[in-house]
Design a protein that fits this description.
By secondary structure, this protein is of the alpha+beta class. The protein contains two helices and nine strands; from the N terminus they run H-H-E-E-E-E-E-E-E-E-E. It has a domain at about 50-140: Immunoglobulin-like (Sandwich), CATH 2.60.40. About 15% of the residues lie in helices and about 40% in strands. A hairpin with a 5-residue loop joins strand 8 and strand 9 (about 140).
Amino acid sequence: MYHFKSICATVIATTLILGATEYHSPALAGTCASQCGPRPIQFTPGQRIRIEVVNRTYRDVKLQKPFIIDPVSLKHGEAMLLEHGDGTLDNVSLLFWHENGYAIKATVSKPNFATLRVELRPERRTRGDRSIYILDNGRIQIL
């Protein structure tokens, strides 16, 4: 009987010591609002949208919507409004580049229901962005 009490006391003491020294964190459910970042920009499929491009670089930038407009120059500080009359029914690309190969960073925003704003800025850390891709499901990708 004494041996049984000794084993029980040892097991209980070991459990209490090990349990007290380990750090147990309570499980917390995170929400997307706290950890997922901003929501991606999306338009309703088929919606007609305007694309506003603003050149915030220090050089001229060339713009082109393949098969729709030929390359055009956008000077430093200028903005250009492009109508995307077909809405988001077809996938469409907006290409941009510096003629001397300087890297560009594209930042997109949705200032209102039917406008996609694309701000082009100088990029020094990576090779930069080359295009905005408007998918037929209304989503926007920067490539």
